[in-house]
Amino acid sequence: MTVTIIMHGTLRRFLPDGAARATLDLRAGATIEEVLVGLGAEQDTWVVARNQAVAERDAVLAPGDVLDCFEPVSGG
After folding, report:
1. Is the whole-model pTM more than 0.85?
2. Which of 16, 37, 65, 72 is within CB 3.0–4.6 Å of 46 for a Cys-Cys bond?
3. What does the alpha-carbon distance between residue 26 and residue 43 come to, in Å, rounded to a whole number?
């Protein structure tokens, strides 16, 4: 199955050539956590939205899903 992942901010470093967006081919039944681990981004990703709604990392993905990944933000 194919899903799209969008990495915001410095999370782009986990995609080839620092791209903001990539299309991934995954096995059926893959979870958000598996995607993050596969990219090496599990420690740096604060929240993931699946199809524009915040999702738990154990959520099973469906073909065509779009994941937006965000890092922690701080201000001062």
Report:
1. yes
2. 72
3. 21
pLDDT in tens, 10-19: 999 999 999 9
Tokens standing for residue 40:
């090496």
Contact 44, 69 (CB under 8 A): no
DSSP conformation class of 57 = T
Using CA atoms, how far apart are residues 3 and 39, in angstroms rounded to an integer? 14
Torsion angle defined by CA atoms of residues 3, 56, 17 and 19, in that order, rounded to the nearest 10 degrees: 70
Count of C-beta atoms within a 10 Å radius of residue 70: 16
Quote the tokens at residue 38.
């596969």
